[in-house]
Amino acid sequence: MSGTGNCYDNAAVETFFNAPTPEELLKTNRAKPQRTITYKGETLTIDEWSVATGIPATTIKGRIANGWNIQRVLTQPIQIHTSRIDEQGRPKPRRKRGTRFTYSGKTHTVREWSKITGIDVATINYRLRKGWSPERALSEPISVSNSRKAQRIEGPGVVSNFGASKGTGGGTSAQDTSKITFSEREAS
Question: Please, what's the largest Cα pairwise distance for the chain?
């Protein structure tokens, strides 16, 4: 009694009883075994090597994908940019957006300092990322030769570089414009 359109359709019940049991699911959906790596006689999975070396599993997988040999994969430390390391050799915490810092007794965000100093937000952030002190980042002037804005304003081809225009003869306003006609009737 399970035909399409039949009001006594029991397809849902038939589907329930034909569904695989949890045991059957376990047999078919086994997780792929993780790749193992043997180094100095010790065989571990990538996750286990990650815990043992302190190198993230994604970094290990990426190094292998890039063709590194196993010794280099597991022994080369993770590189941290020197500007991100404090005096004790520990990584510096990252600055959060809107982080405020003090210069000359005033505390503002990078965006606020940009408005005050006229130095672009990206320039201030770049300087701080490179390890500049806030004092240097906010007080050192921008080199005109390196400033994109200065090149846009003062670069060749800008209208301000041309001499004064002698005009087209049409005047500067409707009152100065001579009467121009295009038909014989208007001309007379």
Answer: 109
Interatomic CA distance for residues 100 and 7, integer angstroms: 70
pLDDT in tens, 10-47: 666 666 667 777 677 666 656 667 788 899 999 999 98
Q: Compute the distance between CA of residue 176 and CA of residue 168 in angstroms, rounded to an integer.
A: 12
**For residue 118, which of 81, 89, 147 has the smallest C-alpha distance?**
147
Q: Tell me the C-alpha distance between 49 and 51, whole Å.
A: 5
Write down the residue that tokens 């959060």 correspond to: 96
Spell out the domain ranges in the chain. 36-75, 101-151
**Scanning the structure block, which residue is given the tokens 């004064």?**
164
User: What is the value of pTM for the model shown?
Assistant: 0.32
Residues 6+ apart with CB under 8 A from 77: 55
- Residue 165 CB partners (closer than 8 Å, separation 6+): none
Which residues, in sequence order, are bridge partners of residue 91? 85
- Give 89's DSSP letter: S
Element at 107 (helix H, strand E): strand 106-108
